[in-house]
Amino acid sequence: MLSSLIPLDKKTARRSKMIVQKKSARFSGTGDLFASLVLAYSTQQPKADLGAVVERTVNAVQHVIYETLANPKSHSLNPHADKFVELRLLQCGDYIRAAAPPKFYTRAQHWRSAISHDTAKGSPTLTASST
């Protein structure tokens, strides 16, 4: 997962990268969960940057997926099954509502890139990364 944020000064861009493990099961509701958590976490911490909100959201979704997979009654591990696995949202409520997550499954890597303005192209472009 990659993201970029270009601030108002338009001189440097903050870029982030997260590596998220793919699971072989098919889940129902992960996109809805992700969208609702981004909204909830950004509302809870209005001064937090989007990168921190997305990092927390990805970790919460990962937690729900791992907890769902840990309960064999809730799913079949056959990745070719037509049935989608229902997420165990209620069982993960404490983790989702926690002010600070007790466990991170993945952390974002952040770096800054200089922005150059190419007048021929008419749009800003990111140049080599810098810290």
Quick overview of this protein structure:
This protein is an alpha+beta fold. The protein is 31% helix and 24% strand.
Describe the structure.
This protein has 131 residues and is of the alpha+beta class. The chain folds into two domains: 1-18 and 111-131, no CATH class; 20-107, no CATH class. Helix content is 31%, strand content 24%. The chain has three helices and six strands; from the N terminus they run βββααβαββ. The protein has helices at 30-44, 50-70, 93-97; strands spanning 2-5, 12-17, 27-28, 85-86, 109-118, 123-130. It has a four-stranded antiparallel β-sheet, with no helix packed on it. A hairpin with a 6-residue loop joins strand 1 (2-5) and strand 2. Helix 1 crosses helix 2 (50-70). The longest helix is centred in the middle third of the chain and has 21 residues, at 50-70.
Write the layout of secondary structure elements.
Blueprint: E1 2-5, E2 12-17, E3 27-28, H1 30-44, H2 50-70, E4 85-86, H3 93-97, E5 109-118, E6 123-130
Parallel strand pairs: 3-4
Antiparallel strand pairs: 1-2, 2-5, 5-6
- By DSSP (H or I, 4+ residues per run), the number of helices equals 3
**Order of strands across the widest beta sheet?**
1-2-5-6
Overall 3D shape: elongated
Give start-end ranges of low-pLDDT stretches. Answer: none
Number of structural domains:
2
Q: Tell me what portion of residues adopts beta-strand conformation.
A: 15-25%
Largest sheet features = 4 strands, antiparallel
Q: Helix amount, in percent?
A: 25-40%
Measured on Cα atoms, how large is the radius of gyration? Answer: 18 Å
* Strand count: 6
Arithmetic mean of pLDDT: 76
Overall SS class: alpha+beta
Order of helices and strands: EEEHHEHEE
Distance N terminus to C terminus?
19 Å
